[in-house]
Amino acid sequence: MSGNGKKRPPLVADKRYAAKPATKKKKPAPKKAAAKPVARKRKASPKKAKPRGFIGWLLTPFRWLFRLIWAFTWRVGLVVSLIIGGFSFYFASQMPAVADLIDQRTRGSVTMTDLSGEVFAWRGDQFGGMVTTDTVSPHLHNAVVATEDKRFYRHLGISPRGIASAVRINLREGRGPLSGNGGSTITQQVAKLLCLGVPFDPNKWDSERAYEADCRRTTLWRKAREAVFSVGMEIAYTKEEILTIYLNRAYLGAGSRGFEAAAQRYFGISAAEVNPAQAAMLAGLLTAPSANAPTRNLQRAQDRASIVIGLMEDQSYISAAQARDARLSPATLSEAARASSGGFFADWVMASGPEFFTRNTTEDVIIRTTLDQRIQTAAEDALIQVFQNDVREGSEAQAAIVVMSADGAVRAMVGGRNISATGAFNRATQALRQTGSAFKPFIYAAALDLGMSPYDMIDDSPTCWERRGSPSWCPENYDREFIGPVTMVDALATSRNIPAILVSEEVGRGLVSDVANGFGVQGDLAAGPALALGVSESTLLDMTGAFAGILNGGSAVTPYGLTDLRLMGDDTALMDATGVGIGERIIREEAARQLTWMMTKVVEEGTGRRARIDGWPIAAKTGTTQGSRDAWFIGFTGDYVTGVWMGYDDNSRLTGVTGGGLPASIWRETMLRVLSGKQPTALPMMIPQRPATTGVLESQGGQAPAQDILNLLDSILTGN
What DSSP string runs through 611-643? Predict the structure, then answer.
């Protein structure tokens, strides 16, 4: 049945179907996984093909470089981001509670009140108490955000757009990229206020000011740390908490820390009560708090506030009508803030009070003082008037005024022509100047205390004193004339030099120095006969206090301005004025009363006639130093002692000025205002009986006839 006789191979099952072998050929992995031909086709695609033409070949290196830079950049960026994120989370984990960051002042504040209890000055860092974004006025909240960081609620602590804009502005204006505009967000500003978490260390920084200056330094490294710290704050706190820290920590000029203190300082109200105009003025202080402070330049503060109002309107925080009203009725200072008087007095109280409660206090302190703002204003107005009307334009001459009661309580103090200055050189308390003839009352005080009479005669004649190793000293009177025998009272009234020297030599320079020192003229006094001419130096405050000792009957007086001191919120005074003021007796009361009478003749008949005030008895003494470098007028009524000094800071000569001239005019203008509306009060003085005969203390070499000396000594010893 096989039929053809040829042998055929037997049929096998796997050869029955033609499709099977094809399937088996595709099974081997190498053939199925081979994708190289496909990859070659992709590389040969038109998009990835090698560039053709000259331009294509020219761009090839740049394309390669771009790919290299991109590959490097995103990897570095990833690493940097991880590092920043790590440090940010680290800072976030170290952040204290918000309440612990509100008030971290290293020193406290000092609030000073006047005689009637009204606040007139602030010193130190004033903190009005904690406020939050919910408790301040919405206008204030919006003004701060509109002015300082309009994207505050949209960024994560830093604003690349703001930084780029600030760098562009700085470069365009010729500054360094980090100088001028900073592009800082509110969060970054808070980071600076917190000094990037570095606390104040007195062992590292000399003062808080140095610490803050170091915190404000701008370097690339600090900017990098600031950015990381800011992101950490955004992680740790909410936006409202960050803004709360800012509202409490920002410095706003005039010693105000935080918006509550500033609102109280400038407007006398809480930060919760400010209107749009006031909110704009406060927010405007953030850029330059000292320069824009309304107490320094109200117009500049109002101009800056107008710009802030525009920003608030542009960002829809206030309507156009509200903006118009705010511009038409700009914020103004409260009455207490407008009363810029008393700056020199406040500085003196701070300098003379206990350091741990004034200059270096860590507590909030309230000091009640002796200042009378009515008298303070009178002194300032008098000084301004005389300089405007009687002093040539452009003169750099200075003047100082002190007014005090007989017990030494200082009622007013002007330390220079810039009456609104704070922290300035105080010529009433810091300037040591020769006293000239203003020293002569202490000579006659010593003589009267020994029993001499105001009517005792002294020979005003040319006299010379020998000086070892130097030519003889032959002083002259101011008018270069000699009038012969003259009573002590007339010699004082007309400020004769020779009689003053003779009396000083007769009673003894040591006694004269003791009397002057006892009354408060501090320092080492001259050792020679020139002591009588006031060549020794003193301050106006000390000289005025010494004259107060004459007014109160011959007892020493310590000028004082602090009545009591207490911590804010406490009713118990930590210290008061007990034990200051009137001290031990220096001369007999009778001698002081006679000297007061002698000094009235200075105003009635002598060198101080320009100071006369109708109806008021006044005792005084003029003083002009050698070369007319200092001019003094110190006088008193029954209630007040007022001292005036005039001169140049560089000790130049005054032209045509004596103690009985411009200083007497300033004194009179001051006292006219002080005494306005008051009834004249009598001076506590004693008019001595004129003796039948008296000896003459002659000037021949400082010697008197022997019998006259014996008579004079007998009179002194017996008290007759």
Answer: G--TT---EEEEEE-GGG-EEEEEEE-SSEEEE
The amino acid at residue 64 is W
Angle at 116 between CA 115 and CA 117, to 5 degrees: 95
Q: At what angle do helices 276-284 and 259-267 cross, to 10 degrees?
A: 120
pLDDT in tens, 563-574: 999 998 888 888
pTM for the model: 0.75
Q: Which of 246, 267, 264 is nearest to 256 (CA)?
A: 264
Q: How far is CA 694 from CA 454, 497, 628, in A?
A: 11, 21, 35
Number of Cβ within a 10 Å radius of residue 517: 17
Q: Which element (helix H / strand E) includes 460?
A: strand 457-460
For the ranges 312-326, 327-341, 396-410, 650-664, which has the lowest average pLDDT? 327-341
| Contact yes or no for 645/431 (Cβ under 8 A) | yes
Distance of alpha carbon 577 from alpha carbon 562, whole angstroms: 6
H helices present in 95-180, as ranges: 138-148, 160-172
At 392, list the tokens.
């040539």
**Which residue in the block uniquely carries the two structure tokens 């000025």?**
657
Q: Is 181 exposed, middle or buried (0-12, 13-18, 19+ CB in 10 A)?
A: middle
C-alpha span between 190 and 193 (Å, rounded): 5
Using an 8 Å Cβ cutoff, are 378 and 666 in contact?
A: no
The values of phi and psi at residue 38, to 5°, are -65, -45
- How confident is the model over 305-324, as pLDDT tens digits? 999 999 999 999 999 999 99
- Sequence-distant (6+) residues with CB within 8 A of 123 are 109, 110, 112, 255, 346, 350, 358
Distance CA 699, CA 707 (A): 15
- Band the pLDDT of 7: cuts 50, 70, 90: very low
Which of 244, 253, 250, 414 has its CA nearest to residue 333? 253
Q: Indicate the pairing of strand 696-697 with strand 119-124.
A: unpaired
Q: How far apart, in whole angstroms, are the C-alpha atoms of residue 482 and residue 497?
A: 10
